Every structure is written in structure tokens, then in C-alpha cells.
Amino acid sequence: MNEENLAVVDTAPAAEVTATTESAQTAPEVADSQVETPEEKKFSQAEIDAMISKRLAREQRKWEREQQARTTQPVVR
Length: 77
Known about the structure:
- The structure is a single chain.
- The chain is an all-alpha fold.
- It has helices at 2-35, 45-72.
- The protein folds into 2 domains: 1-35; 42-77.
- It is elongated and about 100 Å long.
- It starts with a helix and ends in a 5-residue tail after the last helix.
- Residues 1-43 are annotated as: Disordered.
């Protein structure tokens, strides 16, 4: 009967140590993830203007091609 009690006593402290180790390991991970957050890209006004100008030029060319295609198609009634 004493051997059975020893086996139970031996496993209980191991579980406590494991629980302590796990919580000690998770605390630094949370701190590390907060420190390692990458900074967001910040655009200057000139960069934003360039992006918008390119997009508008692309859309204008697309619209002009569509208009030209409409005028060259025969009208079907």
C-alpha cells in the first residue's frame, strides 16, 4: 500500500512543476509578440498622389478604349 501512495505522490508534484513551467513559458511569448509587431507602412503625400494618378490614367485609357470600341461596332436594331 505504501508503494501505491508513493506513486501517486510522485506524479502530483511533476504535474505542478509542469503547470508552473507552462505558465512561465507563455508569459514571455505574449511579451515577445507585442514587441515584434511590425510598423505599418506610412506613405507620403507625393507617394499617394503618384498612386492615384497612375490609377486614374489607367482607368481613363480603359474608358477611351471602351468608347472607341462602341463607336466602331455597327448599330443593331
